[in-house]
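Recap from last week: sequence in, structure out.
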Amino acid sequence: MTHKEHLLIHIDALYRSARYLTKNDNNADDLVQETYLKAFKFLQDDKEIRNVKAWLFRILMNTFINKYRKDKREPSLVDFDSVEAFHESIQEEVMAPSILDDESVLDNLMDDNIKGALEALPDDFRMVILLSIVEGFSYKEISKIVNCPVGTVMSRIYRGRKMLKEKLTGYARKYGFK
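Predicted structure tokens:
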């Protein structure tokens, strides 16, 4: 297996995390693409990487921090075409039958509540939660990926879980989980 093939086996995990970071499919695609571009450029020198997955996530995080946080601070422009499309979708939604009639859609809504709570976390907390719980990295690996001390990682995971618990307590009670 070549270096590039070793990198590509992690594309789904990178995309999943990029999606949670950027909260947008197109931006997640761009972030993953930039991550791989940087990784492939680095590997042209035939350098060896010990933990490829952690290394890729570090590139992803640094790229996100450098580009997307900067973009977040800049004012956005209004796209009138999307406003018009949104208006049309609202009109269609009013005419559509109730989604509560279909149980599978209701199940998806529950997942959306959890995803929404995760996406509502501040970036620093969301990323360590994703790296720990979803991707299974150790505290030490996360520390290297996000470039902060292990104690800070542990604190962010603890506080992030606490924030998620607060956001999802009502949801859990509503569906009989608590």
